[in-house]
Write a structure and sequence with these properties.
The protein is α+β, with helices and mostly antiparallel strands. The chain is built from 17 helices and six strands. α13 packs antiparallel against α14 (351-365).
């Protein structure tokens, strides 16, 4: 789709979503525009689905999700260019009057926090994997400046992931973004990180501090920012207006950083380790069944947007254990969808359907299965069921092989290339 066509599509999407006045917030992930609206009754789902350029529309996780595909970022930017919707929308602070169940609230929260950072995490993870390959094949050495600078680019994202999550969590919980980042920076402060590594015994006002590693951690900062949002609301009521600019951040930092080190951090670290241990035990019972079930339900989880729960576990496992085997089931789903769509493309005589199948296959090969699911397999039902079964079989094989994910990346060709590269390639050494 040409850039000039995005304007019409953007205007029509906002129109059928209920207008700018019906939108609380708008974010996007790899394939979807995620609208948080004031009233779902004002959303014309049928007309949205009929728009050229829209694959499908879902009401999931407390959001109206408009599935666009690989052009979603362009459509997202165009919406703000051609409508009165603002990225920092004043209505962001307003809550919808509709009640949401706990599952929808959880999914909405998880997607709001993790969706914005998945792109940079995937890119950094793939760069990290490529650097490992370069050292394995002798193209680079770990003491070379080229390697060290590129490794900093890759590993820096994961080392300081609490800073990224602090910002996204603050936007989700409506806390001050920069105070939240300040709290995350304090958790990663070199002096205290060194104290943890050295096993020092620290106290705060004579209260013993249980030091844990916050590098690459996930849960502590999310809980801390949530607590920060509640603290700021209380401070806004009691701090004089003339002093709010500096006094609220001062008190927030002075309270939240010690509170995180003393209470929130150790508890959250324990919870994270417990989740990781529970996952390890589950996979250990029968990896074949576990992998098969994950592969089987993964397409349906993606379809309803509930795969974000698995994403949260994936990030926690990577931070706690250094690896993950949950979302690797998405690898089986990606190739199952691509294979089924390829068969449909080869057999169908419908030129329009062939045009949809081609981009859907490419997207699925790189781990983005929504275009394949919504655009092709789901509408024919039987191909979707066959893809789920194939994904389940693939997941069982992955479980049997004990495959683990050691770096972030898309579940597609990028992972496969890392697993099946030949022992040597006729490429010159990189200087």
């Amino acid at each position: 789709m040409a850039k000039k066509n995005y304007e019409k599509l953007a205007k029509e999407i906002v129109r059928y979503i209920g207008g700018v006045e019906n939108v609380n917030t708008l974010i996007h992930c790899a394939t979807r525009l995620r609208f948080k609206v004031k009233n779902t009754q004002n959303v014309d789902k049928k007309k949205l689905e009929q728009l050229e350029g829209v694959i499908t529309v879902l009401d999931s996780g407390g959001q109206i999700q408009v599935v666009i595909g690989q052009h979603v970022a362009d459509v997202y930017d165009t919406i703000f260019e051609v409508t009165d919707l603002k990225k920092e929308n004043p209505s962001d602070a307003e809550e919808s009057g509709e009640k949401k169940n706990l599952l929808n609230t959880f999914m909405d929260t998880i997607s709001g926090i993790f969706a914005p950072v998945l792109g940079v995490m995937s890119g950094a993870g793939m760069l990290k994997a490529l650097l490992i390959l370069c050292t394995t094949f002798g193209w680079l050495k770990s003491d070379m400046g080229t390697y060290r600078i590129l490794y900093a680019a890759a590993d820096g994202v994961f080392t300081f992931i609490p800073v990224f999550l602090a910002y996204t969590a603050a936007k989700k919980f409506r806390a001050n973004e920069f105070v939240a980042v300040g709290v995350a920076a304090a958790l990663l402060y070199p002096d205290l990180t060194a104290a943890y590594s050295a096993g020092e015994a620290l106290t705060f006002l004579k209260i013993p501090v249980v030091l844990v590693s916050y590098t690459s951690s996930v849960i502590p900062i999310v809980i801390s920012v949530y607590a920060l949002s509640k603290l700021e609301k209380g401070l806004k009521r009691i701090v004089p207006t003339v002093c709010k600019t500096f006094l609220t951040p001062l008190l927030s930092l002075a309270i939240m950083v010690p509170a995180t080190y003393l209470v929130i951090g150790p508890i959250a670290d324990t919870v994270g380790k417990a989740l990781a241990s529970g996952y390890t035990g589950l996979v250990g019972l029968n990896p074949v069944i576990a992998g098969g079930l994950l592969g089987l339900i993964w397409p349906a989880a993606v379809m309803f947007g509930v795969h974000w729960g698995f994403v949260a576990l994936n990030v926690n496992n990577m931070a706690t254990l250094g690896y993950d085997a949950i979302t690797i089931a998405g690898l089986a789903s990606a190739f199952a969808q691509a294979g089924v769509v390829l068969m449909i493309m080869l057999k169908t005589k419908n030129k329009k359907l062939k045009g949809v199948c081609g981009p859907a296959i490419i997207s699925a090969m790189f781990g983005i299965t929504e275009p394949a699911i919504y655009g092709v397999t789901l509408q024919f039902k039987r191909p979707f069921i066959l893809a789920c079964l194939a994904s389940g079989i693939g997941g069982a094989i992955i479980g049997f092989g004990g495959v683990k994910q050691y770096s972030a990346g898309t579940n597609g060709s990028s992972i496969v290339s890392e697993l099946f590269l030949p022992e040597s390639l006729p490429l010159p050494s990189l200087l």
